[in-house]
Amino acid sequence: MSAVTSIRPLKLVAVTGAPNSPSKTETLVNAILAQLQQHIQVDVQYIRLSQIGHLLNGAARRDLLAEEVQSALDLIEAADALVVASPVYRASYTGLFKHLFDYIDQFALVDKPVLLAATGGSERHALVLEHQFRPLFSFFQSHTLPIGVFATDKDFENYQVVNPLLLERIELAVTRAIPQFLFASKLKVNPTIHDDFEIKLHQVLATQPHSVFLQHVQNLNFASSNTIATSFVNT
Fold first, then answer.
1. In angstroms, what CA-CA distances link 213 with 5, 115, 123?
2. Which stretches make up the NADPH-dependent FMN reductase-like domain (predicted)?
C-alpha cells in the first residue's frame, strides 16, 4: 500500500468524551487512528475525559483548572488536526466533552481540520454529528471534515469493531481526511524544486482524495517530478 510522508509527522490530538474506559467511543477512535496510521506519519496525543473529566470541577477560569486539564487544552490548541468523539447522551455529546471545549480559546482552532465521530444506542442518534458537533466546531471556525463516523452498539463486540460496513465508513472518512490533514501539517516539497510544484501540490492536497493525490504526484510533468514522487510516495 502506498504511503505519504512529510518532513514531520502530523500532530494529531484525539479527544474522547466517554466518561468510562474502556468504551465503544474509544474503540471507534482507535479504529480511526489505526486506519490513519496505515497511510501517513502521525504523532498522536490522546485526551480521554474518562481520565481528566473529574478534574474539570466547574472552574470559572482556565487558570484555575488542574495542570492535567491545562496541558490537555494546550495540546488541542497546538494540534495540526483533531479527531473528536463522544457517546450520545440526551441527544448530544457528553457534558464533560462540552465543558472541556468551553475552555478552548475562541480562535485557537481556526481552520484546523476536525474529523467528527460519535457512538449511540441506535441509528436514531446518527444526526448528532450534524446537529451538535458541527455547530460547535463551526463556532471555532474549524474545518469540520465532510465525512464523519457514527456507530451504534451493534457495531461492536467486546470493544472491537465487528461491522464491516462501519470499517468501510472509517476507511472512507480517513481517505477523504488525509489530504486535509497533510495540508494542515504543512507538507513541504524539496526546496531545490521549483516553487510551482509546491503550489500545485498544495492545491491537490486541499481538494483531492488521497488516492487521487498519490496518482497526481506520480504523474506531474515537471522535470524533477520523479525525484519528488520518490521522496513522498513509497510503494
1. 13, 19, 33
2. 11-155
- pLDDT-derived band at 7 (thresholds 50, 70, 90) equals low
Question: Rg for the chain (alpha carbons), in Å?
Answer: 19
Instruction: Give which of 203, 196, 187, 194 is closest to 4, Cα–Cα.
Output: 187
Supply the pLDDT for residue 202. Answer: 54
pLDDT given at position 8? 77
- Comparing CA positions, the residue from 47, 37, 43, 42 lying closest to residue 16 is 47
pLDDT at 4 exceeding the cut of 70 = no
Instruction: State how far the alpha carbon of 131 is from the alpha carbons of 17, 53, 91, 115, 206, in Å.
Output: 17, 24, 9, 15, 25
Calculate ∠ Cα 98-128-150, nearest 5°.
105
pTM: 0.78
Within a 13 Å sphere around the CA of 225, how many CA atoms are in the beta-carbon half? Answer: 14
Query: Residue 210's closest CA among 172, 170, 176?
Result: 176
The pairing of strands 3-4 and 233-234 is: antiparallel
Report which secondary-structure segment, H or E, holds 117. Answer: strand 113-120
With beta carbons less than 8 A apart as the criterion, state whether 17 and 78 touch: no
Q: Sign (positive/negative) of CA torsion 87, 26, 4, 10?
A: positive
In tens, the pLDDT along 151-209 reads 999 999 999 999 999 999 999 999 999 999 988 877 533 344 445 544 554 555 555 55
Average pLDDT over residues 63-76: 96
Element at 53 (helix H, strand E): none
Query: CA of 172: how far to CAs of 149, 165, 183, 206, in Å?
Result: 9, 11, 18, 17
